[in-house]
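Researcher: Good morning. I'm working through a list of sequences from a screen, and I'd like to move beyond sequence-only analysis. For each chain I'm collecting a predicted structure so we can compare shapes side by side. This is the next one on the list. No need for commentary yet; just the structure.
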Amino acid sequence: MRQLFLAAAISLFACVAQAFEVEDERMFGAAEGPVLSVLSTTDTEIFAPLIEAFLAQRPGLRLRYVVASSQEVYRAIHDEGAQFDLVISSAMDLQMKLANDGFAAGYNSVAVAGLPGWARWRDRLFGFALEPVVLLASRRALAGLAMPRTRRDLIDLLRANPARFNGRIATYDPHVSGAGYLFATQDARQTDAFWRLAEVMGRLNARLYCCSGAMIDDLESGDLALAYNVVGSYAVTRLPDAPDIEVIEPEDFTVALLRTAFIPAGAAQAGLGGALLDFMLGAQGRALIDGVADLPPLDQSALPPHLRPIRLDPGLLVYLDRIKRQNFLGEWDAAMTQP
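Model: Good morning. Structure tokens for this chain:
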């Protein structure tokens, strides 16, 4: 009996030790009733208005909303088989890999059929919001200097003012942030200027972050002057409380990511997961998402010419290859450790 107890304890400890890391967890809706479980990289505060509007149409439903980093979302589904009914992430490449590897269930509806081809992959993975990846600048820190409007402007600004920007530039750490790795690889595919910029940031001791919110915090406090490749919606939601921060969509090109969602294979409440997805893609859901985060529509004809959406296709998997990832991160590390 004692051996059985020890074995059970060890097994329980292993399960706890392997559990993915949760940043926030909140229950919405009724006190009792069926539970729709959502795993997401989107902050609860941003998604809460949409959740509440959805639940207003389903008064007997509860919704469990769990927030984790993009890497942890991937690990939860791929490695741990965590049970959720809808999975939402800003890391398009990791979502594509999960869908391509069989972790997404097929789903069809009028709402998903209306998406443009670049915003859906088969009947497995669906974009619901388009987000520019932007440059943030502190007006106080750049006082007397012209705001950079292109990557070339930014490189010239940093090279001409090393004392002002040393240790005060931020970007994602692609080693720890799935979204940050995606943005860096997409930039590198678009222009050679990315590596010149990375080398300049490295010489100026750029600070690397896990997430957009932390970069914005340090911009507001004055610790940072610039933050490169930040998810635009986080900046927009903070702007009323951060009048010093200017949001810049680079005019040479602005990468735009798709926030995507899929219903996991074997979801206990797949129908409810589909209902929430349809609501997100419907008129009310789109209005709520746009109202909170000021996101561009999923409509190619309405996009400004500098905005370049990342297509939802298997090309996203290229940089997830182990050797390519290792080589890319090695080149990144070399740029960040410039003498």
